[in-house]
Write a structure and sequence with these properties.
Blueprint (H helix, E strand, L loop, with lengths): L2 H8 L7 E2 L2 E2 H12 L5 H4 L5 H11 L7 E5 L5 H10 L5 E6 L5 H7 L12 H10 L6 E5 L2 H6 L7 E6 L6 H9 L2 E9 L9 H12 L3 E7 L2 E6 L1
Parallel strand pairs: 3-4, 3-6, 4-5, 6-7
Antiparallel strand pairs: 1-2, 7-9, 8-9
Helix pairs in contact: 2-4, 4-5, 9-10
Length: 230
């Protein structure tokens, strides 16, 4: 099945959606029940669903030993905590990118109007949360905009899992900015990439991302589209 055929099937309004030999709700919902209720969504201010959270943990636990995850769009650290829960099994590290509460004027100018800028969590608050969750030494919070962080990225740091959940108007640009730093077999996952659950601009960008190059292991989890770059 081509990536376009996969996306057409994933985004259908009705009918069975069997992916990788099983009905999507069975495995993904099981991971949501087992792994997706660890952190308080209201406290963290996150917007991921429990099923999505469970699969972030699962995918992060599948990176190579000492693997690297890059998260674009950390906000209050909810998805970061789920990623780190899985990554802890691999003794890996996450680089979580977000402007947090800095440079709010620029954030207002560049905002996709999807996340409120009032009372945005600070970098210090998120670091305290992650340390309290037992992840001290496993994360680096990159305070800034994704394109700035990408421009200064150390090419020696290769990425095993790229999680894109930042500005909804630049998902494809975020992918292209970090594409050259992906390890062979790296996973890429994009949030809010469903016509019903997500945003039109992300839907368009996801089709561009997964039409570019060779992919395997494509999965659709609520508003997430994910695949492994061959």
């Amino acid at each position: 099945m081509s990536a376009n055929e996969f996306l057409d099937n994933a985004w259908k309004e009705s009918g069975p959606k069997v992916i990788s030999g099983f009905s999507r709700p069975v495995y993904h919902n099981m991971m949501g029940l087992l792994r997706g209720y660890k952190y308080d969504k209201l406290k963290y201010g996150g917007m991921i669903r429990h099923t999505e959270a469970g699969m972030l943990t699962t995918w992060a636990s599948e990176v190579p030993e000492g693997g690297v995850v890059v998260e674009i769009g950390c906000y209050g650290g909810l998805s970061t905590s789920y990623l780190l829960t899985g990554l802890k099994k691999r003794n890996g590290k996450i680089y979580a990118i977000d402007p947090f509460n800095s440079d709010l004027g620029k954030q207002e100018d560049l905002s996709d109007k999807c996340v409120p800028l009032e009372d945005k969590p600070t970098k210090e608050l998120v670091a305290q949360r992650l340390e309290a969750n037992g992840f001290d030494g496993m994360f680096e919070l990159c305070e800034g905009f994704s394109q700035e962080v990408a421009a200064a990225w150390d090419p020696a740091v290769k990425i095993d899992f790229l999680w894109i959940d930042g500005n909804h108007e630049q998902a494809y640009q975020d992918f292209k900015d970090f594409e050259k730093h992906l390890n062979p077999g790296a996973r890429v996952a994009v949030h809010d990439a469903h016509p019903r659950y997500g945003y039109e601009a992300v839907v368009r960008d996801v089709r561009k991302i997964f039409a570019d190059g060779s992919w395997s292991g494509l999965e659709h989890v609520k508003s997430i589209i994910s695949g492994i770059r061959n």
